[in-house]
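Prompt: May I have another protein with tokenized structure?
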Amino acid sequence: MQITKIITDDTLRELREHGTEEFPFQYNQEEIKKYDEEKIEWHWHMEFEFVVVTKGSVFCLIGNQRIHLDTGEGLFINTRIIHSIENCNEGVISNVLFSPDLIATDKSVIHKKYIKEFLESDSSHIVLKCNEKWQEEILRKLDGIFAVCRRKNIMSELDVHIRICDLWMLVSRHSSEIVKMEKMGISLRSQSRLRKMMEYIETNYFEKIYLEDIARAANISKSEAIRCFSLGMQMSPVEYLNQYRLHRARIELETTEDSIMRIAVNVGIVNSSYFTRIFKKVYGITPKEARSICRDAG
């Protein structure tokens, strides 16, 4: 299934459901160049995700890491990890997303022994290469899952479930190695802090906000707030605040009759000339031009 845009809420959580409540599993085959700007924008979800490059190459961005994947290489992305994928060379990917509950519910001994450690670990991702025997085996098992999913109208939920459990058993066997290998990834704790700060910004963007206010939302220091944003979003908290204010301003320009000066104040920018300057820097046009384009299109 090819989609061309990732829709998220204000915390970057992807809004599209993956599978159903009865069977929380989703398979996709996607040409990255068909997305806006040839990239899958920053997002996160509660499901585990396995990605394999089936043609060309892509860049996977997780925190401040930019991971180059060629054909045949893959990636495991833990739950709640903010990530993005960019086209590099006609990149095509196959991926599966599934809830941990597909393997076992959180009350089961299987969850406690084989899933919980991943949910609570600092492992954000695993790069899967063919030169490691166990990683190559994971990639082969993923190819088998993709093949089952590509069968038209006869995908067997039981077959997929068995294969996912078999895949996870292999991942679990190497859990201690994985935790050591990916300590340099952005931790789930940092991701949680980042989302708390983003939620604070998106709730209070129209107020006068200082860095210490943003840090306080996650109960951390200002330096740790800067570190979390640098790792997770590759920008500073203040840069994110300004980006979000401009995003809200563009919505108001297109949906209200308020003056440009009033809109600037509404989003927390009291200097209208500064507002026009940074708006043009980000969008390439002035607020007045943005409003005019929207009206002409309507």
Q: What stands out?
A: The chain has a mean pLDDT of 88. The beta strands are 25-31, 39-43, 48-62, 65-70, 74-77, 83-98, 125-128.
